[in-house]
């Protein structure tokens, strides 16, 4: 311990020595400090050696390397330790820590973001557990510290001089920290507090225009992050009164800019409405209905100034999201958008006007009979979108709008067919999805869902269709090019163009723009890509298995289920040890077990059982993981399922799990019918079910000889079942039968005597005379044991 003390002191001396500037020695010292802080004992040493004040001096130097080392060391000190976190915050000053987020250097800002995330986690844990640190020290109320931290983050949002990256990081932290993790948690007090104290600040970022003079510095992703935060806060509200308060605050803020602030104020108000329409659209729609807002949007579309036109056209595009309003804009805004598209000299305006037309043109969704525009118009729009998408000269922010347009137009099957044929457009789409322009993710995922038809589609009941026609009701029609054969061909073309590697990059994105609904879209596409067995190898080779794991563990319920089903398909047909190398294979178990729940479809249950069967056959550690996830009772339940394929898959899975001691204990326990079920299934007509049950029986009787004496007690038909197995024309069933008989003969003389008094002796004698095989060897061993017991005598020739 004393040597550690000396080392900590020595490292700080080197780091704070101005003579050592930029030397390798200094670099080594900073790395050592970070490594030491990762261990709890090392972190405690640094903390007790006046480390926090010394780290503050490193932060004050302004040197990037030293600041990074200090922040990473502080992460180790605060990680999962509430009392040290509170002490660190009071020593460094909450304001000081938060202000590091706003520096221009991206790496330092990210390191500060990670430190604050660790601090939030430690404090939140403290709120749950009560006010005690690890070492039992009574400390101040962590809820107060939490609010002080959040309050400082909200202040940072509207501070002039803060970098755009820092603002984005602050929004990301608020998205992760403020809303409840689950609706089961009754306390949404933090959300209400943020809405009351910081909603205007968040709206101010949401209403900012990128880089105009005198405005807040924002990045291309800032407004989208603000929209996501507003959406999360709104979804976290529990009652109408809370939602009404949210609406009121938003409307008051918009009104304050809209009235008496001139044209600049109106632009700011409209931009804020756009931000709300992309986030909590209920609040955005309420704001649009405010007096004069929609009229101003239409009027500003005709402005001479590019900036004003941009803001107004974007607002119009977002406003067209609701079908009710889309029809109003179709009537009033189409001619305006067409004019902008044809007459504007600026690509940035034309591309947005085009997206507006795309959005209105796709208002009928996949319904072939609901055409908004004349035949061929949507194909022309799509062609222009693809042209812009492939144009490298246009910046990524503007090309993103071309993807938005395609996301709407790809509801039309003709557009899908043309799009997947255009290899250059697909390559440009995938390239853009990997770029820094994160707000394009949802649009890319939507376009891919449409191209692969992986949205939910229920075949309408023919009788209901007839009834609807008779009642003169509108009946949606499916496009002829949306038939399965066309969809399969499109999937093949997407795979050939490299869709999997693009989606793998999208799924890895650590950004609030990758929302749960975006994850769900990616999960849907992955499931469509692995539908055909021959395509699964390509998906695995390009990293699809690795990308599916986080999608199956986080996101919407539907998204997690779809990703888990895709994992099951991959686990069934390819070697799981290659698909999920190393420790990753153990992460697959939980998503697969989640598919066994009753709310999943029969196909999902079946695929999960098949996949778990494969995993259970690999190693004891994997079987233990399956047991730990409480899968055994569910698998047992499916052994009674009426559907023969599910019943068979469950029995096969149980057969593989029977290699585990805990499962053997379950079969050996008194007062249950588990053994009886396996014996009865061994006599079923379904050959595959028979094989699984007999395999399980052979395994259990060899591992637990005590079960052999219980087989005659479970059913009166036991002897007939064993004889059927021994006489089966299927070599595998015969082998399993002879192994069960051998285990029973070896277990006790009494059971052997019962077997030798029956026709089993005659059958075994015949089996020993066959060609050398596992069956003949087992049959010979049975008779040898019977001779040993003195139940039978060897024949004259010594056989």
UniProtKB/TrEMBL annotation:
Location of this chain's protein in the cell: Cytoplasm
Sequence ranges assigned to domain UNC-45/Cro1/She4 central in this UniProt record: 203-360
InterPro entries for the chain: ARM-like (IPR011989), ARM-type_fold (IPR016024), UCS_central_dom (IPR024660)
Matching Gene3D superfamilies: Leucine-rich Repeat Variant
Domain of life of the organism encoding this protein: Eukaryota
A Pfam family recorded for this sequence: UNC45-central
Keywords, in A-Z order: Cytoplasm
Predominant cellular place of this UniProt entry's protein: cytoplasm
PANTHER family membership: FI21225P1, PROTEIN UNC-45 HOMOLOG A
Protein name: Protein unc-45 homolog A isoform X3
Species of provenance: Vicugna pacos (Alpaca)
Phylogenetic lineage: Eukaryota, Metazoa, Chordata, Craniata, Vertebrata
